[in-house]
Amino acid sequence: MRAILRCLTLALTVLITTIPADSKGCIKGAVIGGIAGHYAGHHAVLGAAAGCLIGRHAAKQHEQATQNHSPDPSY
């Protein structure tokens, strides 16, 4: 039990220190990934981490797409 808690603490510490401050899409992705990971074999933490990364990537793509389609203010 102690080994599991130590591994979990280490994983969360690494995860917290490497997540950028801009977290658009991360929370939603983490929730969905955590739920999916839980049902896919009790891997909720891994699912949440992967969901956060995927959610952030999708938010960044959406942000770039909306910037490319915005009208030019010089008209």
Give the fraction of residues assigned to helices.
over 70%
Number of DSSP-assigned strands:
0
Sheet/helix structural class:
mainly alpha
Straight-line N-to-C gap: 65 Å
Structure description:
With 75 residues, this protein is mainly α. The protein has one domain (22-75). The protein is 75% helix and 0% strand. The chain is built from 3 helices and no strands. Helix 2 runs antiparallel to helix 3. The termini are far apart. The model has no long low-confidence stretch (mean pLDDT 80).
Summarize the structure.
By secondary structure, the protein is an all-alpha fold.
SSE map:
Blueprint: H1 2-18, H2 26-39, H3 44-68
Looking at this protein, list some descriptive labels.
75 residues, elongated, mainly alpha
